[in-house]
Amino acid sequence: MMPPRRPPKPKVPGLIKGLGVTFGEMVKTLKPDSRGGGPVTVFYPHEKEEPAPRARGVISLHEENCTACMLCARECPDWCIFIEAHKYLAPPRREGGKPRQKNALDRFDIDFGLCMYCGICVEVCPFEALFWSPEFEYGEPKIADLLHDKTKLGMWFETVPEFEPYEAGSEVKVKKVPR
Amino acid sequence: MTAPTESQQLAYIAQQAADSRVNLEFETDEGMTLNIGPQHPATHGTLRIVAKLDGEQVISCEPSPGYMHRGYEKLAEVRTYTQVNTLVNRIDWLGSFANEVPFILAAEKLMEIEAPPRAQHIRAILFELSRIANIALFLGDLGAQLGGVTAVFYAFRDREFVLNQIESVTGGRFHPNFDRIGGLKDDLPKGWIAETKAAMEKLRDFCDELETLLIGNEIFQLRTRGVGVIPPEVALSYGLSGANLRGSGVDWDLRRDACPPGLPYDKIDWKVWTHPDCDSFSRSWVRLQEVRESTFIVDQLLDSIPAGPVMAKVPRIIKVPEGEAYVETENPLGAMGYYVVSKGDLVPFRVKIRSASFSNVSIVPWVCRGVYVPDVITILASLYFILGDIDR
């Protein structure tokens, strides 16, 4: 049952074979070619890699569309969205009509120190007010600064990319970002 | 601050005594006690392994998990099915998508709905991609444990190709949260199929490279052959699963033997790899072949994606009807199952998670008896567990 402890001696020693592999890899990184050659890393602060358009970097808010319905705050698994709103009467659309009741957003905060980046809030939003942006450089020295308020979340909205087209055979409609 | 009352003091002393009793059980008078971990690279997280030594030989060895317990089974009782999905992502963090699949399939079984064929195909592709990402890192990490550091850099580099593909379709590199009851969150972006095929080509190159660099190396074979022999009957009695069982020569794969409805593994042509040697080498070898086989599975699935919707008709607010369901799938680490009990509510009444690593490390006391100290690391690395999967 017990296999032999010492394997048979190979013709070419493993050391030479291993050095061959590492030398081949070294040569491959020197020059970019069609088979994926060239350097595999980038000099980060000077060069930046482009994340995928669907990448979940930061949540952005399109404030005009938000009606403070609280669906996102309720569905969030760790309750990191804080919303406060008040009602007000807007002037009627047509002459002589009734004044409309509308919700105004007082506070819309997302605590990115708590956020799990699951994307449920973006998915449940029925009014297209929340979007993912692939932006990722918003680290802060103080954890309290990770609480983004509605102006900061609104600023992220400019970085939201357009939705990609789908692969052949798909029946899902491509959505549009309301700019 | 007020002084503690006498009852508080007594409770504190009793607590301290209980803690020290637990430690005393592990520590011994004879020989020497060696703690491997909680912070050791071979433990993939924080697993403490208490080894009692006689010189260089291990007399007995006891794993002590629980340093990373997060209480997911309890948390799942107060979260809706979509929210539980984000939690189970974090169980085995190297192959996250594979954790979602059995849970969603169990919920679908209770609701008696089935995902459309296109969603099933994409689900299986992502399932295999997460297996490749997980095991590719194992292959590199195994080298690092045994002193061959080059392999781990190659593994991290080539795993990135797979993670990029997962990111461009799901949006998350490690925590996709892409599976939904009745289908998937979204469809594939344009050009993804061709990119994934190119990535699979690179992963096959990586497998060939590692076969020359690591698995075929005679120093590696000296360190792993005949170390940590687990006979098939012992492996079965300890409940090992996945590549650990196949490395013991048992031809067992849930994808082929008991594939739950909702994964199209019966429609493609593939092979289950086994190795008769039962030692650390055979377990590593089986995993290497599995990565290669997975790339072929992905290629076949990509060629045969049917057109159609990715989401079945499900109500907007999901209430799972009353009942119980158990679904088990072959995850990167082994058999992973979810036992979901529902009382017809928004949240599951009880979720029991059967994770592969917990059973896989349970064999450590048996297999580590009498081995030398460096071989403990070899055995731990070749058993391949992830702490999130043990402690949950």
User: So, CATH architecture of chain B?
Assistant: Orthogonal Bundle
Number of discrete domains of chain B: 1
Determine the oligomeric state from the structure. heterodimer
N→C terminal distance of chain B: 37 Å
How would the global form of chain A be characterised?
A: elongated
H/E series of chain B:
HEEEHHHHHEEHHHHHHEEEHHHH
Profile the largest sheet of chain B: 3 strands, antiparallel
Helix content of chain A: 10-25%
SSE sequence of chain A, one letter per element = HEHEEHEEH
Rounded to an integer in angstroms, the radius of gyration calculated over CA atoms of chain B is 22 Å
Average pLDDT figure of chain A? 83
Structural class of chain B: mainly alpha
Low-confidence segments of chain A, given as residue ranges, are none
Strand order of the largest sheet of chain A: 2-3-5
Tell me what you see in this structure:
- The complex is a heterodimer of chains A (about 180) and B (about 400).
- Chain A is of the alpha+beta class and about 180 residues long.
- Chain A contains 4 helices and 5 strands; from the N terminus they run αβαββαββα.
- In chain A, the strands form 2 sheets. In chain A, strands 2-3-5 form a 3-stranded antiparallel sheet. A two-stranded antiparallel ribbon of chain A has the order 1-4.
- Chain A is elongated.
- Chain B is mostly helical and about 400 residues long.
- Helices cover about 50% and strands about 10% of the residues of chain B.
- Chain B has 16 helices and 8 strands.
- Chain B has a 3-stranded antiparallel sheet. A 3-stranded antiparallel sheet of chain B has the order 6-7-8. Chain B has a two-stranded antiparallel ribbon with strand order 4-5.
- In chain B, helix 4 (about 95-110) packs antiparallel against helix 5, helix 5 runs parallel beside helix 7 and helix 7 (about 190-215) packs antiparallel against helix 12 (about 280-305).
- Chains A and B meet through helix 1 of A and helix 3, helix 6, helix 7 and helix 8 of B.
